[in-house]
Amino acid sequence: xxxxxxxxxxxxxxxxxxxxxLAKKALKSETLGYIEKLLREILQNLVxxxxxxxxxxxxxxxxxxxxxxxxxxxxxKLELLAPHLEASESExxxxxxxxxxxxxxxxxxxxxxxxxxxxxxxxxxxxxxxxLIRSMGRSRQSSEISGGKHGVGKAVQSExxxxxxxxxxxxxxxxxxRLVGVxxxxxxxxxxxxxxxxxxxGFRYQADEGPEMDACVxxxxxxxxxxxxxxxxxxxxKEQTGTSICIPFFRVPDSxxxxxxxxxxxxxxxxxxxxxxxxxxxxxxxxxxxxxEGEKRTLEFGPNDDxxxxxxxxICDWKDHxxxxxxxxxxxxxxxxxxxxxxxxxxxxxxxxxxSGKDAEVLVLLKKVxxxxxSNRVALIRSQGMVLEYIxxxxxxxxxxxxxxxxxxxxxxxxxxxxxxxxxxxxNLEKFISECEPPAHDYIDKNADTAVEKYGAxxxxxxxxxxxxxxxxxTREATQKPSPDDGKRVDELSKLTPFGSGGLPKPGxxxxxxxxxxxxxxxxxxxxxxxxxxxxLKPPKFTEWDLTIDVRMNxxxxxxGEGRFTLSDIQISDPDIGILHSSSHGGNPTGIEFNTTEDDxxxxxxxxxxxxxxxxxxxxxxxSAPSIGIPVExxxxxxxxxxxxRGYSDAE
Length: 652
Fold this sequence. Notes:
With 652 residues, the chain is an alpha+beta fold. It folds into three domains: 7-291, Heat Shock Protein 90 (2-Layer Sandwich), CATH 3.30.565.10; 309-478, no CATH class; 497-649, Sandwich (Immunoglobulin-like), CATH 2.60.40. Strands 1, 2, 3, 4, 5, 6, 7, 8, 9, 10, 11 and 12 form a twelve-stranded mixed sheet that branches. A five-stranded mixed sheet has the order 13-14-17-15-16, sandwiched between helices. Strands 18-19-27-23-24 form a five-stranded antiparallel sheet, with no helix packed on it. The chain is globular. The relative contact order is 0.10.
């Protein structure tokens, strides 16, 4: 078969356009990891472009070596890309040139979507194709509720490659197949010639009249199919509409080996796309993962999956669960609550601006669970079937139940027998929330540029703030324990033991933050308090850090006397490693220095840790409750704390 005469072309630069800054904007997130941002962006785009109620995605990790590696390099013409990578100002990008010439193997990530529109449209006009390939900073989404109005999320795909490149093979609806590649780096010079930061792979553009241009057009039809086969894509027929992405020299997170990446991908997809995988928003997403060793798995939820707590939610008959709860919240029980949240008065309902005082309904479904990863968290979702964010609501002392929940926004709510009959205000809320999403789609931003430009800063901030406030109020009310038989409300009794109030404040945001995850009774007068200390590794990176916590076990008084909690055991653990230290069992195999001291009255216990290298150490404190006549299930330990944080800068 003759070789296809494709090439990589960077346009000559006269403007100094920088693609790198846009990539950094797309990747910015306070909560998401690198692989999470990549998969959320690609799978959300797949969902946004669906043309079927059932869509399918295949995610493959492929390691190319020997003849397969040679064929990939020859077909992709990566040697033409190397001089541009070498001219970059970024050291990491320059290393990509060495990889092309010297690597013994190439790790490729393939993500292939079926049942979607594909890359439709002309080369330089409007359409999915031009929006993806020709523009940066401008979204290709046609739906008003797609989110991601920034047009920079696509940079995440090439940023996931050590050579900053991605190759696309697509069967567009009602068109012939096409193949094109994109490289996005900073503007640069090769020799004395300046170039734009974006290069494309395909056939050199030849206008009907006039000279050639410094641009590529996509490869179409049988040429695209033949080249796609050599590049490791699955070949599509006319009915298999959709787009496949190849990320060559895939940047495997935290390791030089792809051995565990399939497990990581499965965890990420289940965490963020369980609504789509379960058909909770009117369509169903199926995902198959294939490891580099050829092992295939279709993502399903079983009893051992963390996400099974989100099973069996009454998505269609949620109104049957709206009754007022006046009894104990039983394990596995699901209750429904709704609340009204304000809409911007400038929003158009089809008949002009809706005006002030208009609001939309939001649905919250809550299930009682205990001691689970998702305890006391609410998953926020829109109609795209992706979790926007998990919002944590730690229990109010002992006056609240442990729970997990889903908050349905806008057109994700099942109404009138289907998802095809949303109300006008459902549509308005869906649109408004999408306009408030940052490029990473990971929360609702009260300062979002798109929303502020449309509705004003004050209105946007008010609407977003009220949404979060009302969601918290409804969740607290629904998970509150009912009044006990003696007529005293449990929340009143809990004021005797206000968790954290009246003491020293939590540390502010910084390199290390402290958060209380949960506390719960173990029985026989013992309470377990679980703290997690997160080290946010921002430049300069911390290689180790110290922490001092003062825990105050206050005295509790009742008609039968007074007493205070005492600590029975203190454990330090890492989520991925296990217990690192236990004061009751002794031993210190990890090198963490651990000390406790008490004040003269024995009420304050200072816990000092040093030499910690893990990012997320968890401290469990087992406390013994005093016997003073107050039922142990109605009181919680009084714990006040302060921290002294010290990090050590990485020598690099």
